[in-house]
Write the structure tokens for this entry.
Amino acid sequence: MKKILVTGGLGYIGSHTCVDLLEKNYEIIIVDNLCNSELDTLNSIYSITKKKPKFFNCDITNYEELFHLFKTNNIDCIIHFAALKSVSDSVQNPKKYFFNNVEGIKILLRCCKKFKVNKFIFSSSCTVYGFPKVLPVNESMPFGEASSPYGETKIRSEEILLKFCKENKSFKNISLRYFNPIGAHNSNLIGESHKGTPSNLVPIITKSCFNKNIKLKVFGNDYNTKDGTAIRDYIHIEDLSKAHIKAYEYIKDSINNYEFFNVGTGIGYSVIEVINTFEEISGKKLNYIFAKRRKGDIEKIYADIKKVNKKMKWKAKFDLKKMLESAWSWELKRNSNKKTLK
Ligand code: NAD
Ligand code: UD1
């Protein structure tokens, strides 16, 4: 049976997608170098699905290792999650980001060409729209100015894929432009777990309830929004992982060989709305302060989701309350031996 190669399959989005693929009885191979994940996630995937996928601890920038993997496995499609994703780290180490994220995709494509693997699903980001002038953002809008080296690697990767599709007509790619994934799997066995301190809003909120050293700062309350705080389109991880199943089913019969879709809920929430909703569902009072705007932050962004609804027949199900309940439940489970601060 042909297999789906999942790069970065032990990471946050990858692990949830692996669970869904296995539950749909697809055969998968996971490649991950564990630079931002733990081997134990493989056991969690097993606990949920009762299936043990093949795993290779391999770096996607290592052509020889990848070559061997492609040679010895019959691969039908690649779902490519493996990338570095910290915006602040990318500002400090832009070269590391370009090498890992951009060279990584080039090496994968070399293998695709060599071994005639012609389906590819790529993890892109709404960051490719830059600072949008019109909302909601739809796929006909051009790339914007990248707000970070990380963002630039996503734009560059999409460009490389477009060029590769033009030159190789039998090769098909779908780029999924994720908005802001949050929450965890309903089993609470997998979820978002960072190596180091998180920089994203929701993990900071949940962690600040356990760790007095994590202080929640709201970056900017002078934006041109309903309450002055920035607006994002948060999407639950289980909705997002299901979009990959839809993409895999769609790519098999798709006519266009290069497609890209927004994957969000289409609804924008402000930072204050997220905080208020979290306080409501958890019964906790968050001691936050207002701080100045974070460099590179976008005022507001949310997705136009008509294209993904219509063509891939995908729609998110979780609302903000359910998403935050899920994130909170994951945090409680991970700290089940500790007390919350207040
Ligand atoms: P993650 O860090 O949890 O997962 C990425 C996985 O890739 C990790 O397990 C890491 O060890 C692995 N990896 C990184 N470089 C590798 C390499 N060279 N070789 C092999 N493995 C490597 O991140 P995530 O949140 O699951 O994100 C997955 C993808 O989605 C990334 O491409 C990211 O840029 C993109 N994305 C994420 C978000 C988000 O908010 N989480 C938003 C938009 C796009
Ligand atoms: C960020 C990245 C984006 C990346 C995504 C996933 C930037 C500019 N964008 O998205 O490219 O794909 O993470 O890694 O970094 N906020 C606070 N206080 C905090 C943290 C966040 O107020 O401590 C606010 C932010 O200003 C933002 C919102 O919360 O308005 C969401 O922030 P975050 O979770 O970091 O996601 P993005 O910035 O949207």
Remarks:
- The two ends are 53 Å apart (CA to CA).
- The longest helix spans residues 94-115.
- Residues 153 and 159 are 10 Å apart (CA to CA).
